């Protein structure tokens, strides 16, 4: 098929690929599946990814909550690497996110959460009803290097994108001061605090990369702002990877 015909099949989708739920200790209690889905639909999003800190235990609940809507929910996780950098990891299959979770849980310090300090970590069902607490400390670095994490995510068919690279806390530039040569990270996320062009001015390292923006929402009002437009045929991580690879040529 000619390229122009292929382009005709593309749709521009509004995506927010970094949304937390009530499982993240720093998220508001309103971040439950039905309310997240309703808000995402209300603000015109076509795709969201659920990316809790070092866990994917609420992913399936949000996917189930979105089943009767037009919203696509991608499984994901925001991992903290050995270096203290946050990386958004995205998948097409819940099973892949859960495989990453298995590795992450084995590489986190085996310590209990301190709800009074960090906040409670709730596992909920698709209606937002309490299932159980996740009692392990999630808001800490794993001992997985960013290179090993990226390889692991790629082997699971996923996509790894450094989160909010401009932030001093947990951001690649704030922590490392530069983009690493390996892994290549063809896409990076900048926070809503700066525009992509301001980010390129500040960090020339990222000029040849795809820059995306997500909300990193910890409360409902943050969902969808900022967001990224993706020009793809189907709302899959596989196609997002192709979109990124194509735009990088
Ligand atoms: Zn983060
Ligand atoms: Zn986050």
Would you write up a description of this structure?
This protein is α/β, with parallel strands linked by helices and 249 residues long. The chain has a single domain, classed as TIM Barrel (Alpha-Beta Barrel). The protein is built from nine helices and ten strands. The strands form three sheets. A six-stranded mixed sheet has the order 7-4-3-2-1-10, sandwiched between helices. Helix 2 links the parallel strand 1 and strand 2. Helix 2 packs across helix 3. The longest helix has 13 residues. The radius of gyration is 17 Å and the shape is globular. One zinc ion binds next to loops.
Query: What is the succession of H and E elements?
Result: HEHEHEEHHEEHEHEHEEH
List each distinct ligand once: zinc ion
CATH class: Alpha Beta
Number of domains: 1
Average pLDDT? 95
CATH fourth-tier homologous superfamily: Metal-dependent hydrolases
C-alpha-based Rg, rounded: 17 Å
Shape descriptor reads: globular
Q: Can you name the CATH architecture?
A: Alpha-Beta Barrel
| Class by alpha and beta content | alpha/beta
> What amount of the residues lies in strands?
15-25%
Q: Extract low-pLDDT stretches.
A: none
The strand line-up of the biggest sheet is 7-4-3-2-1-10
- The total beta strand count reads 10
The percentage helix is: 25-40%
Number of helix segments? Answer: 9
């Amino acid at each position: 098929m000619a390229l122009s015909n292929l382009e005709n099949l593309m749709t521009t989708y509004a995506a927010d690929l970094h949304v937390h739920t009530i499982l993240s200790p720093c998220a508001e209690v309103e971040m439950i599946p039905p309310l997240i889905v309703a808000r995402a639909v209300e603000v015109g999003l076509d795709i969201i990814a659920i990316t809790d800190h070092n866990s994917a235990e609420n992913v399936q609940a949000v996917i189930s909550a979105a089943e009767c809507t037009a919203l696509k929910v991608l499984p994901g996780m925001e991992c903290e690497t050995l270096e203290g950098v946050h990386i958004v990891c995205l998948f097409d299959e819940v099973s892949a996110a859960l495989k990453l979770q298995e590795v992450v849980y084995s590489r986190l310090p085996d310590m209990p959460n301190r709800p009074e300090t960090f906040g409670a970590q709730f596992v909920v069902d698709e209606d937002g009803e309490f299932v159980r607490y996740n009692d392990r400390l999630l808001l800490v670095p794993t001992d997985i290097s960013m290179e090993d994490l990226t390889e692991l995510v790629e082997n699971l068919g996923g996509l790894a994108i450094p989160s909010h690279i401009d932030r001093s806390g947990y951001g690649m530039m704030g922590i490392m001061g530069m983009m690493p040569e390996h892994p290549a990270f063809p896409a990076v996320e900048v926070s809503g605090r700066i525009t992509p062009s301001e980010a390129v001015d500040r960090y020339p390292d990222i000029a040849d990369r795809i820059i995306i923006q997500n909300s990193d929402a910890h409360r409902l009002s943050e969902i969808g702002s900022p967001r990224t437009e993706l020009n793809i045929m189907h709302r899959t991580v596989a196609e997002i990877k192709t979109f990124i690879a194509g735009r990088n040529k």
